[in-house]
Every structure is written in C-alpha cells, then in structure tokens.
Amino acid sequence: MRYFFLLFGVLVLIVIGVAGRRGDLFRHRPLQIFPDMKIQLKLRPQTPNGFFASGLSSQLPPPGTIVQSPPLRVGEQQVYPFEDLPVNTGLPANMGRKPGATNFVELNPFPVTGRLLARGQQRYTIYCAPCHGAIGDGNGITKKIGAMAIVANLHDKRIVELADGELFNTVSNGKNNMQGYAPQIVVEDRWAIIAYLRALQLSRLGSVEDLAPETRAKLK
Ligand code: HEC
C-alpha cells in the first residue's frame, strides 16, 4: 500500500509537471500532448520560404488567372451581388434592405434580347415548370402526382399586373408556400426567367391586332 501511494504521488507530480502549466506563456513551443492539427506542413502567408525564387511564401496569381466572380454587367454599369441596387433587389437603390418595402421597380433592368429569353426559357423549364407547368398555368408535375395542391397560375390577372421587381422578389425570396430561389439561380438568370414569364403571359394576352397585316391576312 505504501508503494502505491508513493507511485501515485510521483505520477501526479509527473502529470502536473508535463501538462500543468499549459495555459502559461512560454518562450518555446509548449509540449503538445494531443496536437490535433495545430502543427501543419503548410506555408504561412508572408513568411520567408526558400522554395520559391522570390524567397516568400505568398505568391502572386499566375498570369491569365480569371476572377471567380466578376461583377455583373448591366448595360454600362458593373454591379456586385452585395450592392443594394434594383438589379439585386427589385427595389429602388438603397431600399432593398428595408423590410416590407413594396415600391418595386416596374421594369426588368436587363434589355430583353433573344439571348436573354432563350436563357430564361431554359432556366424556367428547369426551376419553375415542375410546379407552374411549361405554360405557366400552375399544372406542373408536382400537382399531377399530388405533391403540391395549389400552385399559382402565372396568367392570373393579379400576377400579370405585378411589377417586374415584385416577380423578382418572389423568385428570390419566395412567397407563402413557394420557397426562394436566390441560392440556386444567379441574379441575371432570375431576370431572364422573368423576361420569359412575361413572354408566356403575352402569349395568352395577344390579339389578332398585334399581328403584322400580312400575317393577319394569311389567317383569314
Ligand atoms: C415547388 C413548387 C414551386 C416552384 C419550383 C416554383 N414555384 Fe412559384 N409558386 C409556388 C406556389 C405553391 C405558389 C403559390 C404561393 C401562395 O401564394 O401560396 C407560387 C407562386 C408564385 C408566384 C405568385 C406570387 C404572388 O404574388 O402571388 C409567382 C410569380 C411565381 N410563383 C413564380 C415562380 C417562378 C418564376 C419560379 C421559377 C424560378 C417558381 N415560381 C418556382 C410553387 C412553386
């Protein structure tokens, strides 16, 4: 029993001696019993390093490196995703961060070109058609299999009359049962979808008078 106490005492002293002062400041690197991943074979930024010709750990990107997220080009303007501008929020500049703002911008900030519409059709088919249907009447596959009971008909007079900015806000942040698609669809593609949605709506609202005279003549 005596030897046990002696051995126990020595053990306690060893443990305290080795690990006891670990919180203190040392001139040397402290003894790490469980180093985990604190010490790694990697280059610290801005430290001397003999591997590179410049003698530094930090290197400039090689020539020809492409920026990962260049700013969005809207006409002459360059827009970054964090800027509080109509392109990003669907609201007038510096209004987008105010909760409950409803003065949405009337028009799509992107010029509606054939390229934008084609992109919008493709993205609409991927992201919206499963619920709203290929023609936007709310009869997508999710309704047929019974996954969603009520999906908005995008040809409703109320929705046709919404400002482009409000549609953008719905696509970005969602509404009631519809989730927001900002994380999945980049800003330009959301506006492309809205341009295409307007074309879908127009396809139902057009009249014979909208046709060119020669096409109208062919109809009769
Ligand atoms: C998972 C199914 C689903 C998908 C995918 C979906 N929506 Fe919806 N959407 C809904 C439902 C459900 C509603 C009705 C929400 C409510 O008012 O309860 C709705 C409502 C809307 C409205 C009407 C909002 C209003 O003011 O009442 C618009 C506009 C709309 N969606 C556009 C889109 C567009 C554009 C896409 C593709 C980016 C899309 N939705 C994708 C389910 C979906």
Structure description:
It contains nine helices and four strands. With 220 residues, it is mainly α. The protein has a domain at 74-204: Orthogonal Bundle (Cytochrome Bc1 Complex, Chain D, domain 2), CATH 1.10.760.10. The strands form two sheets. The chain has a two-stranded antiparallel sheet. Strand 1 and strand 2 form a beta hairpin. The termini are far apart. Heme C (HEC) is lined by residues 127-128, 130-132, 142, 148, 151-152, 154, 159, 162, 167, 170-171, 175-178, 181, 193, 197.
CATH class identity of the domain at 74-204: Mainly Alpha
CATH architecture of the domain at 74-204: Orthogonal Bundle
Total strands: the figure is: 4
The CATH fourth-level homologous superfamily of the domain at 74-204:
Cytochrome c-like domain
Structural class: mainly alpha
Largest sheet, spatial ordering of strands: 1-2
What fraction of residues sit in β-strands? under 5%
Bound ligands: heme C
**Tell me, what's the shape?**
elongated
Summarize model confidence as the mean pLDDT.
89
**Rg, please?**
31 Å
Helix percent reads 25-40%
- Provide a count of the helices: 9
Taking the sheet with the most strands, its summary is: 2 strands, antiparallel
SSE pattern, N- to C-terminal? HEEHHHHHHEEHH
